[in-house]
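wait is this the right file?? whatever heres the structure
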């Protein structure tokens, strides 16, 4: 059976062009960029070339980019780095209640160590209100961190507005742009951010590499101590093949982004419309228009997201859910709950994230299969019986 992958927000396949660009750096050009001989300089040159490409994608200068082991490290670096870099000024951090775990857990870690964290609420569409940010700022606030777009329900946040508030108050502003960089336009000056996280494997690059943009003059401490790599900001021998792949992926994304976003938005809207037509007691999660071009997230009453995912998988369709019945935690997605969904609605969520290889035929197959799965599951549903 030909499988249909609709989980591009979780990870993307590495593009063949990217793999091809990476391969020489495992073998012939294997040098350590810190070495002064020709092998070293060859590797160093490749890393710096990639840095220019990554900086160019987001309107930054190359010396403002630090390569990391991924989006999680970039988020941790930004949050803990500012927290401990600005400790003498204050201990208050403002974030939202819908951040990725990499941000939420870094904040919880700091909370246990005496920092004071505000987790801003969101509205029913998952939007943070810039005015809430403004009202929450105190003279102890050292950092604001709000994601650019949410990985689960796709809402794009009003980052530029929050950026203006942060700038006025002279508070460092971080955004997790892992879901947007390479997919929709991202410009650090237009957004008004001082720190921005990216990850290669969410934009058709390899896993295990990402970057943190650090605006010149932003005060943060490093927490990888060792050699002097990355301008002393992040020790450890550079992941040269990974960084080269990241650079290539970013270069391709920049060229194709607008056209691809348009194609995906069309497919997204068609899929949403058809799902709402063909299934009853279903609703769209997230914002209808301020939304990632590739994200479709719905809640379907009286069915478990996990059962739907497993049944779709049997049909060769790979999707995801905000439900977490069989995982270690029984709590459904904190993101859907923050938007005001009930536990039942959050457990009935289903996410399809589209990508470069998604076709209309694939989505037609989803529309064929899913209504039948829902009918079957509802027929066995204790949730439904208890309401009759
Ligand atoms: C995937 C993701 C991350 C984590 O990135 P990794 O490179 O997998 O560590 C962080 N934030 C968001 C919004 C993501 O989607």
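ok assuming it is, sequence goes like this
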């Amino acid at each position: 059976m030909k499988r249909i992958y609709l989980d591009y927000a979780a990870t993307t396949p590495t593009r063949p062009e990217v793999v091809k660009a990476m391969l020489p750096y495992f073998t012939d050009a294997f040098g350590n960029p810190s070495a002064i001989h020709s092998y070293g300089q060859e590797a160093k040159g490749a890393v710096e070339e990639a840095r220019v490409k990554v900086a160019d994608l987001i309107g930054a200068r190359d010396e403002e980019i630090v390569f990391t082991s991924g989006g999680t490290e970039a988020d941790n670096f930004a949050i803990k780095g500012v927290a401990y870099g600005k400790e003498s000024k204050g201990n208050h951090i403002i974030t939202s209640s819908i951040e990725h775990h990499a941000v939420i857990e870094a904040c919880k870690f700091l909370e246990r160590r005496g920092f004071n964290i505000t987790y801003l609420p969101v509205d029913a569409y998952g939007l943070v209100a810039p005015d809430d940010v403004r009202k929450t700022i105190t003279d102890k606030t050292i950092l604001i961190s709000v994601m650019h777009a949410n990985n689960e329900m796709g809402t794009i946040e009003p980052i530029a507005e929050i950026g203006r508030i942060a700038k006025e108050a002279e508070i460092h502003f971080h955004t997790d742009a892992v879901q947007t960089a390479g997919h929709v336009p991202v410009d650090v000056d237009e957004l008004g951010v001082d720190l921005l996280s990216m990850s290669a494997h969410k934009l058709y690059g390899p896993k295990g590499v990402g970057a943190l943009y650090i605006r010149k003059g932003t005060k943060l401490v490093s927490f990888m101590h060792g050699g002097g790599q990355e301008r002393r900001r992040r020790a450890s021998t550079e992941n040269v093949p990974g960084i080269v792949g990241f650079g290539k992926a970013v270069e391709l994304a920049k060229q194709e982004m607008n056209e691809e976003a348009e194609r995906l938005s069309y497919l997204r809207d068609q899929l949403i419309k058809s799902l709402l037509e063909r299934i009853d007691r279903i609703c769209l999660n997230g914002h209808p228009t301020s939304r990632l071009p590739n994200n479709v997230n719905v809640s379907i009453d009286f069915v478990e997201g996990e059962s739907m995912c497993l049944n779709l998988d049997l049909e060769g369709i790979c999707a995801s859910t905000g439900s977490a019945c069989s995982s270690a935690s029984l709590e459904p997605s904190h993101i859907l709950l923050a938007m005001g969904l009930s536990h039942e609605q959050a457990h009935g969520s289903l996410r399809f994230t589209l990508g470069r290889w998604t076709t209309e035929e694939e989505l037609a197959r989803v529309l064929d299969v899913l209504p039948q799965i829902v009918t079957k599951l509802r027929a066995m549903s204790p949730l439904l019986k208890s309401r009759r």
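The CA atoms of residues 50 and 247 lie 4 Å apart. so i think its the right one actually
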